[in-house]
Amino acid sequence: MARRKKIYEGKAKILYEGPEPGTLVQYFKDDATAFNAEKRATVDGKGVLNNRLSEFFMTGLNTIGVPTHFIKRINMREQLIRSVEIIPLEVIVRNVAAGSMAKRLGLEEGAPLPRPIVEFSYKEDSLGDPLVPEEYIIAFGWASQQDLDDMVALALRVNDFLSGVMYGVGIKLVDFKIEIGRIYDGDFMRLVVADEISPDSCRLWDIKTGQKLDKDVFRRDLGNLTDAYTEVARRLGVLPTNVTHTTKPTLIN
Description:
Keywords: ATP-binding, Ligase, Nucleotide-binding, Purine biosynthesis. By secondary structure, this protein is an alpha+beta fold. The chain has helices at about 45-65, 100-105, 135-140, 145-165, 215-220, 225-235; strands spanning about 5-10, 15, 25-30, 30-35, 40, 70-75, 80, 85, 90-95, 110-120, 170-185, 190-195, 200-205, 250.
């Protein structure tokens, strides 16, 4: 691989300068983190699976008219994406009470919510990505009221798409988070779904058994993370052929 300029490295991905202006190469690492990176491990094959799964979901969204930054997959670990200005918010959509919401509100995990609930958290690892109300977002200039309305609409369309796809393969979409970026074309700006959509960013439960098929497997030491992600890929028909399952996660001290 030719030496390329690294633009940014996060917990699970690296962004490199793209081959054309306005593009980036997104590389998926095998690193797994939880609890704001207090728990870390290297999980063989995770990056390959997330690359293929994110390609599947982003392509599906593009097909139904939900704009994303995704252009194409380059190889088993990399994809070509549009360079976007990331809004410093995570957009969280919840269909079922789980995780921090269940703890925060004293709800039983697994309780269905009366309707999908959209939350925003401020993207800042040092603060633990705190939940923020729309009033804060507008006051601090992270997004306008129109941006927020458009972000909620995008997130709910993503929820409809993902829920249907997952239900079709026997998986319940409990919740997920996405990032949204701005793309400029002259004076015209539009919002697009960015970052990734994978079991790293979704809670996925088997409809019949309740088995967890997402990063909670790693968070809660419920088994092999690669096996869980492989099961999701197998059901969706996007299973890569070179992912191994013999290596256990290697914890990093």
